[in-house]
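Fill in residues.
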């Protein structure tokens, strides 16, 4: 079958984040229809007292609804697909450390993936790409990401090379940051994700390939050299993307770099 969808996906979103579309059940039905055997909900984490319009849902108003909805769907479709409940979260140091730990320790969610998009500065969210000094930005991104890996709360890192979308060049600093991230992944036993997000809007270079900021070819050469385990994340924000995404392309990408993506995660994740 041409462009056959994957069988697993642990990186997905819901409309609660403010930049996705569709009802939770529509995602599940699309996953079933397209042959997925495992599907994980991992919307952008909602933070008590820290709403972020257009990026994450409101904790006080929507978090319990998220939990209840996914658990109900898990029970309803248990004979057709294996569903899991998680979050994609940034690491903000000690500020939310206890909250993250308790989410896992109390089995509120089964797993969390580390997706570093922004940091907090005096109570305000700042996207790394908006920093003026881009070298400082990617070094801060790497430092925060590595601290998150070392926290023991995350089963894998989503789009570890996302910094290439706003840094934009593979120079000595980009390579230094990549090696720091990869060494930390090896040290902590953290899986790295080949993220499919940009491949859905990347510029097509020929019949089979795309020009994308990430996954970055040079970054993943280093991952392959280091022998770090990897997984593919669809990072879908709409139900139809579970069918209409370049799956053959991402398979070729992995093969080209000598990577064998994992076919499942051991859940629930045990917080360290």
């Amino acid at each position: 079958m041409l462009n056959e969808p994957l069988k697993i996906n642990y990186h997905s979103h819901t409309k609660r984040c403010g930049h996705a579309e569709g009802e939770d059940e529509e995602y599940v039905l699309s996953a079933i229809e397209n042959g997925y055997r495992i599907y994980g909900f991992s919307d952008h984490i909602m933070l008590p007292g820290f709403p972020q319009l257009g990026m994450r849902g409101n904790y006080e108003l929507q978090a319990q609804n998220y939990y209840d909805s996914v658990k109900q769907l898990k029970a309803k479709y248990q004979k057709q697909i294996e569903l899991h409940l998680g979050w994609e979260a940034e690491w903000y140091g000690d500020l939310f450390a206890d909250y993250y730990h308790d989410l896992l320790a109390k089995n509120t969610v089964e797993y969390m993936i580390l997706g570093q998009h922004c940091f907090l500065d005096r109570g305000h969210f700042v996207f790394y790409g908006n920093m003026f000094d881009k070298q400082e930005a990617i070094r801060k991104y790497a430092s925060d990401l590595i601290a998150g890996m070392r926290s023991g709360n995350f089963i894998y890192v989503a789009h570890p090379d996302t910094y290439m979308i706003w840094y934009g060049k593979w120079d000595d600093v980009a390579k230094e940051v990549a090696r720091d991230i990869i060494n930390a992944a090896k040290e902590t036993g953290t899986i790295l994700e080949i993220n499919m997000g940009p491949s859905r809007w990347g510029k097509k270079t020929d019949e089979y390939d795309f020009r994308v900021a990430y996954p970055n070819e040079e970054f993943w050469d280093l991952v392959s050299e280091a022998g770090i385990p990897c997984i593919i994340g669809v990072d879908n924000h709409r139900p139809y993307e579970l069918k209409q995404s370049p799956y053959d392309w991402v398979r070729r990408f992995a093969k080209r770099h000598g990577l064998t993506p994992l076919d499942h995660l051991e859940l629930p994740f045990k917080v360290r």
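The first helix runs from residue 24 to 33.
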